Amino acid sequence: MLASRSSLFPPRLQLDAFGHIITVFHGRKSLSAEEIEERYPASFINMSDLSTSRYFVMNTLFNIPEICAFADIVHFFSEREGYTELEDGTGMQAKHTLLTFRSMFHDVRGAMEHIHSRGVLQAKIMEDLDKYVQKEPQLPILLRRISDSGKGCFLLTNSDYNYTKVIMNYLFTVDLPEGWDRDWQSYFDLIVVSARKPLFFRDGTVLREVDQETGKLKLGQYSGGSHRGRVFSGGSADIISEMLGKMGDNILYVGDHIFGDVLKSKKLRGWKTFLIMPELHQELRSLHAGMKYYQRLKNLEFMLAELYRGLASDATEEPDASELKKAIDDTSKTLDRVFNHYFGSTFRSGSRQSFFAMQTSRYADLYSSSLLNLINYPLFYNFHSVALSLPHESGLWKR
Hints:
14 helices; 4-stranded mixed sheet; hydrolase; single chain; HAD-like_sf; globular; 399 residues; HAD-SF_hydro_IG_5-nucl; 17 strands; Rossmann fold; HAD_sf; alpha/beta; Cytosolic purine 5'-nucleotidase
């Protein structure tokens, strides 16, 4: 999902794997195909533009409340009596009050940055851990299995030490077998907080040790010695690889941020990657609920292909496919609403895979709703994906 920071209009866009526009929303309103064509004649966004100031990529769970807040604010002022949209489409006005869509976006974005960077969000979570943090009794079991197997395990987080300590202590207040260590730090060979990902995967920052009594950083740069039992702040992928004695695809990195965790660690460091997506639970439920629409969509697309199949090269009259194309479009929209009335599926619209689905397929070696799904496999398990045939291969190899 993208938010446009253009001053002309404030839509949210969903792209397919190649940059073609799938859906566009203005507030809560879904734009029609005609409206999309008017604003985006090519119905296409150049991928290189995604890193410019015109667009802001929103592809994490953390972005969902931000997207909703922005959409609701635009919708509120678009529907509010006394406010009219400016002729140039840049915002709303009521008497002497001017609200541009660009300023609305920056206000919401600034608020999200504020509560995250100033610790407001973390403080709210720590006030009610039972409400916001889900305990998993199997977590210590999985980490113990990793340790007993002789494989190293490290914790890398952008959170500061004090917040990390509170969360980890809470996660480990579960029933454990007799004799098991309840100290969460004992389950990790290396602990790094305030990592500043994705900068961590490029140049990184100075590695410093954390004073675990005060939560403050010790003076100077960490210069070596045993790192087990210590907590570090900052650093870089190069430093961590040296401390662990592992690099490249000998490291499996588990994270829940497609850009800051998975994409950067894969592209810049060649690490094996495991993307955690809790939203897969809802995605799978919606897949089952929408199965009849998906099957209908595939049948309609097959019928459309058959309409053109076998036409002679000298045919002069194109078959009328308007009704089929409308049925495909209507079925795609119905299927999208099964997943989410406003956003549709994270991974597709109709039969077209989303930009996020492409990123996941390209940069995540594994993805799952939870790290704990690994507990169902031996630690030497080798996951394999089904090899996909190219179009010129599939017809021959199926014979």
